[in-house]
Write a structure and sequence with these properties.
Elements (H helix, E strand, L loop, with lengths): L2 E6 L2 E14 L3 E13 L5 H11 L5 E12 L5 E14 L4 E5 L3 E6 L2 H6 L4 E15 L4 E5 L5 E3 L4 E14 L1 H7 L7 E13 L5
Antiparallel strand pairs: 1-2, 2-4, 2-6, 3-4, 5-8, 5-11, 6-8, 7-8, 9-12, 10-12, 11-12
């Protein structure tokens, strides 16, 4: 498995030993050793997964990096965090993906009203399996726990992703809308219940 390391809060360092890693096209900023960079049409999803992204306009231009050495990734000076996966599924905004292990499988899933409210589109990504995934955020990534006793409410613009046995619900808060003004995005909220982790950024898109 490739080695993911945060070199600085805005630079991802990935060590490869004759291995492969997927990353957003154009995110490589430096490397040492012997590396090969290729555009990835399928992105680990197979033909029908790539076709679904095309049809749903859920764009995610990927490249495959192969070789031995160290490669560095960054994206628009955004903060980077690594999320380890152990036979898990992560629901994550496609715009927040930076890089992930080749062993992880990605798919496109329906985001519904959450995506429409935040302007991110009606579809999002899932990443499943064992390995590492690097995500970007505006400000340091924040991890919040959801438990059956304590549901979590999140602004759709701050949402990055979640994993665990979690149910997601889109709610419209009439009282909050009345208090802050009808144009405020805070009138739309995401409610998470169950057991797991939710990842957010300390800024709105």
């Amino acid at each position: 498995m490739s080695s993911f390391k945060i070199n600085t809060d805005r630079l991802l360092e990935v060590g490869l030993q004759n291995e492969k890693v997927m990353a957003i096209a154009g995110s490589m900023v430096a490397y040492t050793g012997s590396m090969k960079f290729e555009k990835s049409i399928l992105g680990g999803e197979g033909f029908f997964g790539a076709l679904k992204r095309k049809v749903t306009n859920e764009g995610m231009s990927l490249m495959q990096t192969t070789g031995t050495g160290t490669v560095y990734f960054a994206q628009n000076a955004a903060e980077i965090a690594v999320i380890p996966m152990a036979s898990e599924k992560l629901f994550v905004e496609s715009s927040s993906l930076l890089a992930y292990d080749i062993a992880l499988k990605t798919k496109t899933t329906f985001a519904g009203l959450r995506g429409a409210a935040s302007g991110q589109g009606l579809f999002t990504s899932t990443v499943e399996g064992t390995g590492n995934i690097a995500v970007i955020s505006r400000g340091n990534l924040i991890t919040l726990e959801v438990s059956p006793k304590y549901p979590l409410f999140v602004d759709p613009d701050a949402f990055i992703g979640y994993k665990g046995n979690i149910q997601q619900e889109f709610i419209f808060d009439v009282n909050w809308r009345t208090m802050v003004g009808q144009a405020s995005g805070e009138s739309y909220q995401l409610k998470f219940t169950g057991q797991g982790l939710v990842y957010i950024q300390p800024a709105e898109r």
